[in-house]
Specification:
With 1016 residues, the chain is mostly beta strands. The chain is globular.
Length: 1016
């Protein structure tokens, strides 16, 4: 018997990043399917829009249909030949009917449809649910009945119904329902494809209205756009099934904008997602390589699997790798390794993570590569090197001689998403597949007499994966995980022919931290006809773990089905302190006497996730490891920068409403990142909003703790006030941060968790130095540095601590002299938490700007760097002495702005060298202007500086000023390569320039001038 081994809470961890969306309205008992008997598998065919747009005609359609037959596409499963927009005249006739364009279709649409039908194919057409189509031809709003009737009379089998034109104030669902009813009234079978572009969340209501619905705006022939479409569609797996599909849009394969590798990726991803496969290219001129992609029958078989579970992500890393799993009707598992990054990646998954059960004897499983058409074997895992933008696609099976195809499976029972599918075999046995299409693990029972079997004393069920055959009294019972399936081969039998069906199920935690002890409960149940005897249960744990049973593990007798036939055993399981992060697998074995000389042995498994130990002190999330799956709608999640582009490390400084942050997470909707915090912190704090690098976005931020929502921002748009998140996480093990699209599409949804941090306990609200708040105090950093100019300070600064509440005990040990260190110790009322902060005071004749905190900063590319260029290289400027390398300074990129608070500091002058940095990878392009402002007054303007402009020296009086602003702007040729440096930037008491030393640079025979550390 195949007893599920991922229990409910484990599944929650595996799938949470998509189930949160799925739970927003997802309820099988509330939404009935259209159930018109059509599109029981995802539609396959051709549509001319991607390749031809409006340039379609009868000849093209007929020749394409003929090519589909001759090329083997029809035999591979392609059925529909679909017209898109522009097939009609711009006006209806005097009776209000649509009129085919006679120049394109001289004999009308019916003549073309008749030809297509003569080839054994089906015909599709296009209309729109507004007053016009997208190309401004007549729409079908208020003409649904006559248009549907015309389509039926012409022999149309498929309608793509777009959402263009004026809706006249009528809700989208109402408009689509009206066409649904009009099509049904014709009496003709017409697949209803709702091209709604993802607006109004059609997956929530589309099942009742159409056979498929677009989940996002139009695709285009680029890898980036294909990736965006995929990332949106893949998260919607709870909403797909036979007769109702998430449509990721027509395929671009063959149109020239992507490589063959990327086209194979598109076809594989669409196939495992059970998305319709509609070729969108010029088939008449397609190359052999392109046709080989379209006609890969092994991949198509995954897409056309009858139970119609959409492939779901089960492993996703922030490096751009993802593993998708799709259970098949016959028990096989289809798997895709996808690498969205720009570099090859090694990807690995264990068989246990794929839901392949533990067997009593270590079995060998068959792994079929669906593109190489090669088969290998494995016992425990699958691993591969996946090329950039590429995939590896597999179909895994037990590798026995008794394998059966997926053809012929029929759904016999559907009880609110708990389904039973059956296929009759020639030997009188039946394959029975139990499908769970709900969001929670559930027990499904199959009564053989309701599945076509005659009454028998027992039924023998052979587990598809383990090959173990057990005897059931009256029903086959199995736990089935969400969106998963379990398969058996069932035959009538007699008692004692094989061992009775004794199952082992688990109830326990989804994770166990290193050194932690948790309780796991095993339940043994006898589903057999007769009692079993002498049961001996054992729980096996990994090496180094400890397990102690809380009750007896041996039992003399267990009654048969229906007679108190279950028993529970509790176990205390302890993970070692050095347990490695990742998945750990436990197994339970029970040996028993089943009568008639049958000795039974059943094994079941259970997996828990081992997290990395959380920090012991206050911590920024950007310094912590992710826990579990990580998803992001555009590129990877970036640490301490905005999300930037599509690759790791291409973000800019995190900027919310013009304010720059040096710490945080840059994300893009839809995004999910989890962190294991182990009830180790009291507060999660972050500023949130849309990053300034894009405009037009709209997002929703949510914070979750162990599956419970802790915070919801509501919709946030451009220039909205920054929100401040401050939530209690004292009872949270797993913290999850989620960002969703706010309703206008996710094209510009660059969002930031700025300064995101975890606090053990907030003991100190503020620290004041000489009456002013300590700039940069974040409660995480332990050491703070205050540097003063000589002559501006004589006494040790006064330090004042503002405690979080009156119960916090504060002790201040002031510095005895300058330079010196003041130590602050804050202790909670109960003495359980102590925080120590150190304020290091220094006095110097030159105060480098790179050692000071700013109150505001933003840059046009990358991140502002202290003592390095924006490209993170040594600062280098061109001078009349050659290339000068500076140890100190600020590296920026136009357009940038940095503001410093200098009120009451006693600074006399600001000095700096400025110019375009000579990064080794930059060419001669780039032109910028440096400006220095103080209290709204322009103090310095460099004029236009180019790559060959010598560095200029800034020397301005800032005495008595309150605020200094350093600006770098583009000089008019765009900001590309505008790497600008404030080299050796400093405040001093007078205008004395620093001492300069020279040396020869042996590498390029230029004079290099270095500003030494001794001048600091």
């Amino acid at each position: 018997m195949n007893i599920s081994w991922f229990q409910k809470s484990l599944v929650k961890l595996l799938f949470l990043f998509t189930l949160v969306i799925g739970l927003l309205g997802f309820n099988h008992s509330q939404a009935y399917a259209l159930d018109n008997g059509l599109a029981e598998t995802p539609p396959m065919g051709w549509n001319g829009w991607n390749a031809f747009h409006c340039d379609v005609n009868a000849v093209l359609v007929k020749e394409t249909a003929k090519k589909m037959v001759e090329s083997g596409m029809k035999e591979a499963g392609y059925q529909y030949v679909n017209l898109d927009d522009c097939w009609m005249l711009s006006q209806r006739d005097e009776n209000g009917n649509l009129v085919p364009d006679p120049a394109k279709f001289p004999d009308g649409i019916k003549e073309v449809a008749d030809y297509v039908h003569s080839l054994g194919l089906k015909m599709g057409i296009y209309a729109s649910a507004g007053t016009t189509t997208c190309a401004w031809y007549p729409g079908s709003l208020n003409h649904e009945k006559e248009d549907a009737q015309s389509f039926a009379e012409w022999g149309i089998d498929y309608l793509k119904y777009d959402n263009c034109g004026d809706p006249q104030g009528r809700p989208i669902q109402e408009r689509y329902e009206k066409m649904r009813d009009a099509l049904a009234a014709t009496g003709r079978d017409i697949v209803f494809s709702m091209s709604v572009g993802g607006g109004d969340d059609p997956w929530l209501w589309g099942k009742q209205v159409g056979n498929l619905w677009r989940t996002i705006g139009d695709i285009s022939d680029s890898y980036v756009r294909m990736l965006v479409v995929f990332l949106k569609n893949v998260e919607l797996y709870p909403y797909a099934g036979p007769g109702y599909w998430n449509d990721a849009d027509m395929l671009e394969i063959g149109n020239g904008g992507m490589s063959l590798e990327e086209y194979r990726t598109e076809f594989s991803l669409w196939s495992i997602m059970a998305s319709p496969l509609l070729a969108g290219t010029d088939l008449l001129n397609a190359s052999k390589e392109i046709m080989d992609i379209y006609t890969n029958r092994e991949v198509i078989a995954v897409n056309q699997d009858p139970i119609g579970l959409q492939g779901r992500p089960i492993k996703q890393q922030n490096d751009g790798s993802m593993v998708l799993l799709k259970p098949m009707a016959n028990g096989d598992k289809a798997v895709v390794f996808f690498n969205s990054s720009n570099a090859a990646l090694n990807v690995e998954i264990s068989l246990s993570q794929l839901g392949i059960p533990f067997s009593v004897d270590k079995k060998t499983y068959t792994v079929r590569n669906l593109w190489a058409h090669e088969t290998v074997s494995t016992t425990d895992k699958i691993s591969a090197s996946v090329p950039p933008h590429g995939i590896m696609m597999y179909r895994i099976s037990p590798g026995t001689k008794n394998e059966v195809s997926t053809d012929g499976f029929k759904r016999v029972i559907n009880n609110d998403g708990k389904e039973i599918w059956v296929k009759s075999l020639s030997d009188g046995s039946k394959m029975i597949t139990l499908v769970n299409r709900t969001t929670a693990a559930t027990t499904i029972s199959a009564e053989p007499e309701k599945l076509g079997f005659k009454h028998a004393s027992v039924y023998l069920a052979e587990d598809y994966w383990t090959g173990q055959k057990l005897s059931y009294a009256s029903k086959i019972v199995s736990d089935v995980e969400p969106f998963s399936a379990v398969t058996y081969r069932v035959t009538p039998g007699t008692p004692n022919e094989v061992p009775a069906a004794v199952s082992i199920s688990f109830d326990g935690p989804s994770l166990i931290a290193p050194g932690e002890t948790k309780t796991i409960i095993t339940t043994m149940t006898n589903y057999g006809r007769n009692a079993v005897h002498n049961l001996n249960l054992k729980l096996n744990v990994p090496e180094g773990w400890k397990v102690i049973s809380g009750s007896d593990t041996t039992f003399k007798t267990m009654p048969p089905e229906g007679k108190n036939n279950s028993v529970k055993v509790s176990w205390k399981v302890t993970a070692p302190q050095d347990a490695e992060a990742g998945w750990s697998h436990l197994t339970a074995d029970v040996m028993f006497d089943s009568g008639g000389g049958n000795q039974g042995h059943v094994r079941s498994g259970f997996s828990v996730q081992i997290p990395s130990a959380p920090p012991t002190e206050n911590a920024f999330l950007s310094d912590m490891q992710f826990f579990g799956n990580v998803s992001n709608g555009w590129g990877p999640i970036e640490r301490d920068t905005s999300v930037g582009g599509n690759y790791q490390g291409d973000g800019k400084m995190i900027t919310l409403n013009g304010k720059g942050y040096e710490k945080g997470l840059g994300v893009h909707a839809y995004s999910k990142a989890s962190f294991y915090i182990g009830k180790n912190f009291s507060r999660f704090i972050s500023d949130i909003g849309l990053d300034g690098e894009t405009q037009g976005g709209s997002v929703i931020f949510q914070v979750w703790g162990d599956g419970n929502k802790l915070y919801d921002s509501g919709v946030m748009k451009d220039n909205a006030d920054v929100q401040h998140v401050n939530v209690d996480v004292s009872d949270v093990d797993v913290l999850m941060l989620e960002v969703m699209d706010g309703g206008v599409g996710n094209g510009a949804d660059h969002a930031d968790w700025a300064g995101a941090k975890l606090l053990k306990e907030v003991l100190v609200d503020d620290i004041k130095i000489n009456g002013e708040s300590l700039s940069g105090f974040d409660q995480v950093t332990k050491d703070y540095y205050m540097t003063y100019l000589e002559g501006t300070i004589s006494d040790v600064p006064t330090v004042e601590v503002i405690p979080a509440n009156n119960d916090v005990k504060v002790d201040i040990s002031p510095a005895e002299q300058l330079p010196g260190t003041t130590v602050i110790t804050a202790t909670s009322a109960d003495g359980s938490v102590t925080k120590t902060y150190k304020i290091h005071f220094n006095v110097t004749p030159q105060l480098y700007v790179s050692d000071l905190p700013w109150i505001y900063a933003t840059t046009g590319w990358g991140t502002i760097h202290r003592d390095a260029s924006v490209g993170e290289n040594p600062i280098k400027l061109l001078t009349d002495s050659g290339i000068v390398t500076y140890d100190k300074g600020i590296g920026t990129h136009a357009i940038s702005e940095i503001i410093y608070d200098i009120a009451g500091r006693g600074y006399g002058r600001f000095q700096s060298y400025v110019g375009l940095d000579h990064e080794s990878h930059n060419n001669d392009s780039g032109s910028i202007v440096f400006q220095v402002w103080a209290d709204g007054e322009l103090l310095f303007d460099s004029g236009t500086m180019k790559r060959d402009t010598l560095a200029k020296f800034v020397d301005v009086d800032v005495s008595g000023r309150k605020q200094l602003k350093l600006i770098v702007t583009d000089a008019g040729d765009g900001i590309g390569n505008d790497h600008g440096d404030w080299a050796d930037a400093q405040f001093i008491a007078d205008n004395t320039a620093p001492e300069i030393h020279t040396k020869m640079n042996d590498n390029d025979l230029q004079t290099e001038v270095t500003i030494p550390d001794s001048n600091r």
